[in-house]
Give the backbone structure.
Amino acid sequence: MTDFPTPPRFAYPADGRLTATMVAAYARDGFLVLDGFASPETCALLRGRVADLIEAFDPDQNRVAFSAAAQAHAAEDYFRESGDKVRFFVEEGAVAADGALDRPKTKAVNKIGHALHDLDPIFGPFSRDPRLAETAADLGLADPALAQSMVICKQPEIGGEVTLHQDATFLHTEPVSVTGFWVALEAADRENGCLFAVPGGHAEGLKRRFRYDGDDLVMEVLDAAPFAGAEVALEAPEGALVVLHGLVPHRSGPNLSARSRLAYALHVVDRAAAWSPDNWLKRAPEMPFRGFDE
Ligand SMILES: O=C(O)CCC(=O)C(=O)O
């Protein structure tokens, strides 16, 4: 196995305010690994909430598979209309030839998205933690708006990989502002599919845009050159926060281990930048993006 170098990591500051060293590391690398953001109790509460949500999910109503590689979900209204809802997407490998799930739903859900931050009574307040507002301000977000949230389950043995991407591909503003706040609800390591990122890759500019072209969702290639740098593993103990610049290339491996790797990802954009109207994510007019304290 390739021996990846270890990125710097820091303890999450009690008030959420980043030190000058952290801000400099983020500017250099395009990410920050901050241990101790969520307490063990909070992580347990959120894992319990995920279990309750999946318990209430009826896979006989919808079995849309999410595949970061094939993007087949992009043709489905169930996905296209999920920007202001809480919807469940299953693992590609859990759908049998006859369309039925080949395992219990608790082991088949790939992700839940994309408006938990606005609609869920547990993930809502968690997403609007005042410490995160401080962190976002220190990262330069002038007028932050919570745009998208996902629980990513990365189920044992079947959890699909998330291919190398930049978040600005999917949530585009002019200029780029999207910032990812990714929280390990369980320890994430190389065996169960942790994040990997290319330090400094955010300096290479945006390579692709996933956007509407008429009624079609297309992946427009802006720069076909591969990312130049070597990636590092962003291993994260339970409760760690990984902050990702919207242009930093990152991915996660498949989970072939016997352990799950539950994470919560919140994507924030700056309302000081212009939201691109051809973005895939749509919101009903009565559900505009809200900030941390709105
Ligand atoms: O959790 C993962 O595996 C991928 C998360 C990700 O790519 C993101 O939050 O942008």
Observations:
- The longest helix spans residues 40-56.
- The chain has one domain: 10-272.
- The pocket of 2-oxoglutaric acid is lined by residues 152, 154, 162, 167, 180, 182, 250, 252, 263, 265 (CB under 6 Å).
